[in-house]
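Checklist before submission:
- one chain only
- standard amino acids only
- sequence pasted in full

Submission:
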Amino acid sequence: MNPRRFDDEARDYDAVLVVSFGGPEGPDEVMPFLDRVLAGRPVPPPVKARIAARYARFGGVSPINAHTREFIAALEALLAAKGPRLPVYWGNRNSAPLLGDAMRRMSGDGIGNAVAFVTSMFSSYSGCRQYREDLFRAAEEAEDAPRIDKLRVAYNHPGFVSAMADRVSEARKQAPKGAALLFTAHSLPQSMASVADYEAQLHEACGLVAECVGDDHWRLAFQSNNARTGDPWLVPTVEQALASIAASDRSSVVVAPIGFVCDHMEVVMDLDVEARACSEGLGLDYFRARTVGTHPAYVDMVRQLVVERMSANPERPCLGQRGPNPDYCAPDCCLSGRPGEALPTLGGLGDGHSLPR
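Returned file contents:
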């Protein structure tokens, strides 16, 4: 471990900030949401319209905000019961409540020091660094912004692994014996994935969960390349993996969206609708594991991570061979893979770790 990237000082926090992706909660919110998501990306208007049509199928509502509210309620209850007794704030990247508004609320409430939990378990530009850019920008734009530290990426934390293993076990009980196990995560452009630990972390986490449920023959596939830009993206796709499973004479499959902590449009549309239809067309019985959501082990993991940063020389629970992810990201970690100078961030080594008051 590089000791400079681990925070061994006991920190004093006034609040927890939950940082999420966000999603529309009505038809009028879909296009403003997509404008934020796709900003700066070369996505042709017909592709944007096709993505918007996916949301229209569900009344313009993504399930992510409702699930995030449930998670925050569970976290608040756990902090009240077991401590530390900290208020929980919520800010999204792409929809209300926006991160900038959350930062201003914290400032108005007199919050001086906060710890941020980003609802992404794996390291990539879109799952880590971009949120750190968002935090920097929101803090810079808010008057008297709180000092912000970001909790470490926790893909191999025992709480996440056991929660995901329970979700897989629940689904396997509904499936016939011998069902194939297919983990899924959001695909990324290869240029982005090549400068992050995303794939290595995913393979580690899948192996840990599979070990818990006693399955040595799991597979990992990538989903939701809905923008379909010209850059090559990670493969195999879910459809390719399902075809391979069907060709191996399996008759059923359990699909576990390990790359998502709660239901997004990418879960309910890409898995519950499209992947299910693909499976049925291939003659596979289809069973989808739930996301970790409000599983007690996952919620308590977040509480443990907060306590970890508030403790001197803490233990950092983790499973597998890769060790705990650092508290502070390296300056070149999780770059976008696109040309141009990197934007300023919070929570990284060399950028002050947090915005000073």
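Reviewer check: The two ends are 30 Å apart (CA to CA).
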